[in-house]
Design a protein that fits this description.
Length: about 180
């Protein structure tokens, strides 16, 4: 007996197909520019899952097990940690050990669960970014004192790095390339 066809991941990107590519404001302020840049890369991360089924988003594509869904779970975890916990803002309790399980989706975690987790983390991070001046400091999980400016730069770098990983993983899965469909 054959198993049923895997269900494709629904479209999750906020970028409409073939519209002008979103961009960082050419004359925006520092905080706005950093935040918009982060958001553009967050959207690219989500697009990397579009049109793939559950097996594909979980498929380990490196010897260390890197997969698309695990990278999204990791990004959600660190958004809560850096933008919320570091600045004393509420973060949802994690149901997994972030030191050992944030890069892998467990068998009981659905794709929809991880995408919803990322959406909640983004929303909480966005609220923290809007409410916190760039110079305001918080305390990281390891005791370092960090400014919101530093966290925005750090998370922009982390998101871009993992989006790059996702570029390669997605290309290996089905040949899709670029930041947004039909643009690059």
């Amino acid at each position: 007996m054959s198993s049923p066809e895997p269900t494709p991941v629904p479209p999750v990107s906020s970028a409409p197909a073939l519209s002008p590519a979103p961009h960082v404001p050419y004359t925006g302020g520092e905080k706005e520019s950093l935040h918009v840049s982060l958001d553009l890369h967050r959207d690219a991360v989500l697009w990397k899952l579009e049109g793939l089924d559950d097996e594909q988003v979980r498929r380990p594509m490196t010897p260390t097990g890197t997969n698309l869904l695990g990278l999204v779970k990791h990004l959600a975890t660190v958004e809560y940690g850096w933008f919320c916990s570091a600045f004393g803002r509420e973060a949802e309790p994690l149901w997994f050990d972030p030191a050992a399980e944030d890069m892998a989706a467990g068998p009981d975690e659905t794709t929809a669960d991880i995408l919803a987790f990322y959406a909640r983390a983004r929303a909480a991070a966005d609220a923290s970014i809007r409410a916190t001046d760039l110079e305001t400091t918080g305390t990281a999980w390891d005791g370092r004192v960090v400014s919101m400016r530093w966290v925005l730069i750090h998370m922009l770098g982390d998101t871009v790095r993992h989006a790059g990983h996702m570029d390669i993983v997605r290309e290996l899965i089905d040949g899709a390339v670029g930041r947004y469909p039909g643009r690059e």
